[in-house]
From TrEMBL, chain A:
This is Ubiquinol oxidase subunit II, cyanide insensitive. It comes from Halovibrio variabilis. Pfam families: Cyt_bd_oxida_II. It comes from the Bacteria. Belongs to the cytochrome ubiquinol oxidase subunit 2 family. The chain crosses the membrane at residues 7-24, 75-97, 118-139, 159-181, 190-212, 224-246, 258-278, 298-322.
UniProtKB/TrEMBL annotation, chain B:
InterPro entries: Cyt-d_ubiquinol_oxidase_su_1 (IPR002585). The chain crosses the membrane at residues 12-42, 54-76, 96-118, 125-146, 183-206, 218-236, 318-342, 354-376, 404-427. Residues 439-471 are annotated as: Disordered. Belongs to the cytochrome ubiquinol oxidase subunit 1 family. Keywords: Cell membrane, Electron transport, Heme, Iron, Membrane, Metal-binding, Transmembrane, Transmembrane helix, Transport. It is a multi-pass membrane protein. It comes from Halovibrio variabilis. One of its GO terms (biological process) is aerobic electron transport chain. GO terms for cellular component: cytochrome complex; plasma membrane. This is Cyanide insensitive terminal oxidase. GO terms for molecular function: electron transfer activity; heme binding; metal ion binding; oxidoreductase activity, acting on diphenols and related substances as donors, oxygen as acceptor. It is found in: Cell inner membrane; Cell membrane. The keyword Membrane applies.
């Protein structure tokens, strides 16, 4: 067992799971955030139908994040969740409303407006709460002897509100570029129109967050302005991807905007990881402090090695089954 | 009154988990039924099976959706309200829940999309495969979650080091003593629930003479299944009870309302347990029957509740009456399924209106039985969270305050209230519109609400988009 550092392998798996969640549920939630701005009800049908067969699988990555943290890094689970108690409730309430809206909206007549609102507000609140979690992680938590000792609203600061809004804008961008990929006609025209605006908004918020972070976190300041100059490659690559989004929208390419937006996420995410590594429950606890017993990590790893590739394979297959454009008036099941 | 975060958290967990439980208990049975219908259609190509599977898949979609969203809450509850418990038991429960996610949830989610939206997009055989995978997923899921739950009742394969559980034997921990019984009991309960709902809805359709060919088939299948499963469940329940007597005698004593250890214990039909006085009021019972059931001998000794100190006793009144509710409904289920057999021999199951109406009326009962059963086993464990090793109070999140817990309790009650109301409303409408020929269906979509031309049902070429070739 000494040959492998199980904790490092687990850090990679959980990191991958969180990334998958953010990318996959990100575009569903983004469509929800854009919902009230859609040009008409036909466009809303297309938006919802483009994710209806896959949203459930996308959201499962969040459940894997929760269960996986409990299995591999229980300290994260047992500090983050009490610390973010109210925020977690808001996120779950949001996910509940947006989830049932998929089924209920298509079955309703008089109350369709309300399920449109449930879909939009549910997505927006869930996205905001997830962004605030990122902010709270950057800020750190008051923890004594492996137990959270702060209050109910310690996480809610101007900084975490900004990261919450930032992730909302980011998800909306993912949603818009997904819609470019999956729609045609006037719906796609609208998606092309809003993408540059959302991109500008995302870049603005991310710039403010990047400038602000070193002031609230000495570790981050040291990392970025110390001797690790190589890490500047991540923001540079994220900017390059942003430029690619802009150019490909101008050329009305269909898949490049979405893929380049994924690139923005991946490089921003890597930038965040290198800023904090290996601290996982800031300010004091590292991955190794937070880890579960080695026999538990190993027991779970054995299954994961076989099962995750299978999951990725059949998930890819379902995306392939539902490939191509979603057309106006294409029915629900 | 001071707000106690422990009481509020327990209330919240009980509420959230009960609300969640009613959906999977139905979808586990229904998923298998849908897979069976797909299989029958695939084999026989009889369109009646296809009509049934189309209808039940619509019901499944709504119920499964509500199950998914309420289930996500569960996976975060342990951390928000029970962080000390999560931290202490993570070495076992973390891998269990993670395995549930990767072996079951992803499978269900991915293939559900194909099941719901894949009609016409994938070949019929692949569609059948998707239906089977969803059904298999529901079983894998119940395997892991019931193993984790059973471990709380009969912890095994672990040792406690520095207030944290470490697994010494995975097979002993996963296949802990109460797991096989609980799993069987719950699996059969799911089939009973699914069976009674399908039977009830089919009966409702038959009362209205709607698609009699398909619904007669459905009703007949369900009644055969129930005739076999309802008595089987009683036998499994008996084994489960004897297993509980061995590992959690206090719970069984509370179920029987049996305070002092003794022999020739009566089976109480009625009593008002009084926890403070440690006795019952107004007892009516059948002599020696509890001893006979539990020890298979009329003069067998059954340990009483008072073997446990008063502060380590479960709430007897709740456990006692919840148990009676569950068993009472179980006996009623057996009676109904036997009635079905009698009527079938007379050839009257499809037109004996009183019987069909009774089947419709009891649709909620299997859900009530399942909830009552869970109340028995979960309340019967208290004050222990991990039986004999960790109490609820020890497992609570230290930073949690009363107002925080109250806020989320009210919040979940409101959210679930809205979702449940809407869900039942739309399900009722799916059923009301179910199994009707296309033209009689109420439209459910604004897009189709355009005024119907009076002759369109007769396919008269009265259109403005007349086929150019023919004209």
């Amino acid at each position: 067992m000494e040959m492998f550092d199980l904790t490092l392998i687990w850090a990679f798996i959980i990191g991958f799971g969180i990334m998958m969640y953010v990318l996959m549920d990100g575009f569903d939630l983004g469509l929800g955030i854009l919902y009230p701005f859609a040009p008409d009800e036909d466009a809303r049908d297309v938006m919802m139908n483009s994710v209806a067969p896959i949203w459930d699988g996308n959201e499962t990555w969040l459940v894997l994040g929760g269960a996986g943290l409990l299995g591999a890094f229980p300290l994260v689970y047992s500090v983050f969740l009490p610390a973010l108690y109210i925020g977690v409730f808001l996120m779950l309430a949001g996910l509940i409303f947006r989830g049932v809206a998929f089924e209920f909206r298509f079955k309703s007549r008089r109350n369709r407006r309300w399920w449109n609102r449930a879909f939009c507000w549910g997505s927006a609140v869930a996205a905001f709460a997830q962004g605030a979690v990122v902010g709270a992680y950057i800020q750190g938590f008051p923890v004594e002897d492996f137990v959270y000792v702060g209050g109910a609203f310690d996480w809610l600061t101007p900084f975490s509100v900004l990261t919450g809004l930032g992730l909302m804008a980011g998800y909306a961008l993912l949603g818009a570029t997904w819609l470019i990929l999956k729609s045609e006609g006037h719906v796609q025209d609208w998606a092309y129109k809003i993408t540059p605006l959302l991109l500008a908004l995302v870049l603005f918020v991310f710039a403010v967050i990047s400038l602000w972070t070193p002031f609230i976190n000495p570790l981050v300041r040291e990392r970025w302005f110390g001797n690790m100059q190589l890490i500047w490659i991540f923001p540079f690559l994220a900017l390059a991807c942003s430029f690619l989004v802009y150019r490909s929208v101008q050329k009305r390419r269909e898949s490049v905007p979405f893929l380049a937006t994924i690139g923005i996420y991946v490089f921003t995410y890597l930038g965040l990881i290198v800023s904090k590594w290996p601290v996982i429950v800031p300010p004091n606890y590292t991955l190794w402090d937070a880890a579960s017993a080695p026999e538990s990590q190993l027991f779970l790893l054995v299954g994961m090695v076989f099962v995750i590739p299978i999951i990725l394979a059949y998930t890819a297959w379902t995306y392939w089954v539902f490939r191509g454009k979603v057309r106006v008036g294409e029915g629900y099941h | 009154m001071e707000l106690d975060p422990l009481v509020l958290s327990r209330l919240q967990f009980a509420f959230v988990v009960s609300f969640h439980a009613i959906f999977p208990v139905f979808t586990i049975g229904l998923a298998s039924y849908i897979a069976l219908l797909h299989g029958l259609f695939f084999k026989t190509q009889n369109p009646a099976w296809d009509r049934l599977s189309l209808f039940w898949t619509k019901v499944f979609a709504v119920v499964f959706g509500m199950g998914v969203v309420s289930g996500i809450v569960m996976s975060f509850q342990f951390g928000t309200n029970w962080s000390n418990f999560s931290q202490a038991s993570s070495n076992f429960l973390g891998p269990m829940l993670s395995y549930e996610v990767v072996t079951a949830f992803f499978l269900e989610a991915a293939f559900l999309g194909v099941l719901l939206f894949g009609r016409g997009k994938v070949p019929q055989g692949v569609h059948l495969f998707a239906a089977i995978m969803v059904a298999v997923g529901t079983f894998i899921s119940s395997f892991w979650i019931l193993s984790a739950n059973s471990w709380l009742h009969t912890p095994a394969g672990v040792e406690l080091i520095d207030s944290s559980f470490h697994v010494t034997s995975w097979s002993e921990a996963i296949f802990n003593p109460s797991f096989p019984y609980r799993f069987m009991h719950m699996a059969v309960a799911s089939f009973l629930t699914g069976g009674f709902v399908v039977a009830g809805v089919s009966a409702w359709f038959l009362l209205r003479d709607r698609d009699p060919e398909a619904n007669r088939r459905a009703l007949s299948m369900c009644l055969w299944l129930l005739l076999f499963l309802a008595p089987t469940q009683a036998v499994i329940g008996d084994f489960h009870g004897i297993n509980t007597l061995e590992h959690q005698p206090t719970k069984v004593a509370a179920m029987e309302g049996h305070w002092e250890t003794s022999t020739n214990v009566p089976l109480l039909l009625f009593a008002i347990p009084d926890q403070e006085a440690q006795t019952n009021h107004f007892e009516i019972g059948i002599p020696s029957l509890a001893s006979l059931i539990l020890t298979h001998s009329p003069d067998g000794e059954v340990p009483g509740i008072t073997e446990a100190a008063p502060d380590e006793q479960p709430p007897v009144l709740i456990v006692f009456w919840a148990f009676r509710a569950m068993v009472g409904i179980g006996l009623l289920m057996i009676a109904i399924s036997l009635t079905g057999l009698v009527l079938r021999r007379k050839g009257r199951i499809y037109n004996q209106r009183l019987f069909l109406k009774a089947l419709v009326a009891i649709i909620p009962l299997p859900f009530a039985a399942v909830l009552a059963g869970w109340i028995v086993t979960e309340s019967g464990r208290s004050p222990w969270l991990v039986y004999g090793m960790m109490t609820h109070a020890e497992g609570l999140t230290p930073s949690l305050t009363g107002p925080m817990a109250l806020f989320t309790l009210i919040g979940y009650a409101l959210v679930y209230g809205v979702v449940f109301y809407a869900g039942v409303y739309y399900l009722t409408r799916v059923v009301r519109n179910g199994m009707l020929p296309e033209e009689e269906r109420e439209t459910t979509d604004d897009n189709f609400k355009r005024p119907m031309r009076p002759l369109s049902a007769a396919h008269t070429p009265f259109d403005d988009d007349v086929d150019p070739v023919r004209s």
